[in-house]
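Supplementary material to the annual report.
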Amino acid sequence: MTFFDKVLEHEQFDLQQFWSTVTDEMVIKSLNKQSLSDKDFLILLAPKGAGYLENMAQKAHKLTVQNFGKVIFLYTPMYLSSYCVNRCTYCGFNVENKFLRKTLTLKEVGMEAQAISKTGLKHILVLTGESRNHANLQYLLECGEILKKYFTSITIEIYPMETEEYKKLVKAGVDSITIYQETYNRTRYDAVHLSGPKKDYGYRLEAAERAGNAGMRSINIGALLGLSDWRADAFLTGLHAKYLQDNFPGVEIGISLPRLRPHKGSFQPVSTPEDRDLVQTMLAFRLFLPRVGITISTRESAQFRDNLMKLGVTKMSAGSSTEVGGHSQDNKSDGQFEISDNRSVAEVREAILNKGYQPVLKDWQYL
Amino acid sequence: MEDILKIGGKELSNRLFLGTGKFPNKNIIPQVIKSSETQVVTVAVRRVDLNGEQENILNYISKDCILMPNTSGARNAEEAVRIAQIARAAGCGNWIKIEVINDNKYLLPDNYETIKATEILAKDGFVVLPYVSPDLMVAKALVDAGAAAVMPLGAPIGSNRGLQTKELIRILIAEIDLPIIVDAGIGKPSQAAEAMEMGADAVLVNTAIATAEDAVKMAEAFNLAVKAGRLAYLAGPGAEQLYGEASSPLTDFLR
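Predicted assembly:
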């Protein structure tokens, strides 16, 4: 049994119909429980739940401080390659988009790493498009060896791999993986992934489990909110996180809440969540899964991110660039999407301190 | 006579140990150390950044304190041993608090792996303070493995739920000939006092101090509570009676 079986089970259930029956009493009851069931989580995501944001926020704040302390972990993304063979209608790296693409040479990887490490950051997130011709396993292993000299934690956000490949990356010093399912709705998934290996929904969905079996220390998942019905995707994301937490108790599980951002191409989102919706989703995640990490990236604006700090966020990116070579190269490629919060690492650190939180730049040690 | 706690060749007059995670700002840690009068401070090796001047948490800890690095993040004995070695190589001394946790939902320690790590590190010259779920057989195994103290949890880390494992800790205090330091779960000074009254040798507090509105003041409160509890223990509280004196005694006929 994998999480795929859970998805199939839930396809039999009419979420929209259920949400239309949720009452105030149901929301209040679920919100005040010490331990929330799948159904309580579903209830908190209902439109009715929007009337209880302050109550949810108070509880979420308390739970987060209790479990994580008054701290926010920081990292920054580093794009290794923008080559991609997939045709995903919503992504700037779509193979059909004509723009200057680039893969960093190992020398350039060192230069990027050096530039980033000057900010004091110790956790790096490396990303590639899906093209084994331009960024294969061997290349990634060599990048890992270089990055280890500058950073104490390496997360990869790349195409899904086999367990054995993940094991090799773990051995090379990669400790974490981020992999978004984009949308858990199989029909919609098929419609927005026109061609390429990413079209295989199940292979992508089970990548998190393969990474867990390979010994990754932390696994971060998420749906690209706006691709499909965001409430439904938020619900499945929460269940996926819980499934991973239950099956891989030694792994730290994290959830990201990326909203669709402007990018190359003309994709129109189905229903992008408003700020209030994103907050409701985040609070529901926290109440449902008190120990799960929650990441908010620079896709969101500086002001909005600052306000979210007390609502359950545990991890934030800073000083971000979605361009290959964006931290050190003159001939960088175009970015994957636009960034909203353009503050430097130092500025984000300052903002965190001003909110009464400690910015943590190092939370792991390569062993 | 001064009341001294001896661990690993060191003599301690204060029985409140302090954890350093979760503080809103590293700048308040020196003040917290001062108001708590703590002599033992634990730091997660995973958080120590020796190269970052401003970021290096060790720069915020008074040189008068004993540094007790912990193996937070270790999922098995092997990782705990590796982290301990990294800490010693980095100049953090030879005290090590072993935390082996392979359960991110409840953060409960893996007693079996903890015993293994204790044995390896004690043989390697470390002063080993293992964090465990309170269990008599495990504590006895830790004695045999060469532990310098046993650190049973009162309740899961960060839960602030107090001495939920009281009866089990009471047995450890009675049966184990090593310092018993209650670690994790203590959410209020009154709970710290309760642990000390029971005869615990010390308590370790982090979340309850670090996440208080005024951490410096809360640290002082814990210091006083630990002292009061210890004093009460030494004074020997009067025996508790389960029942009041019955007005119609059932054994009167025996007189």
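The CA atoms of residues 181 and 213 of chain A lie 18 Å apart.
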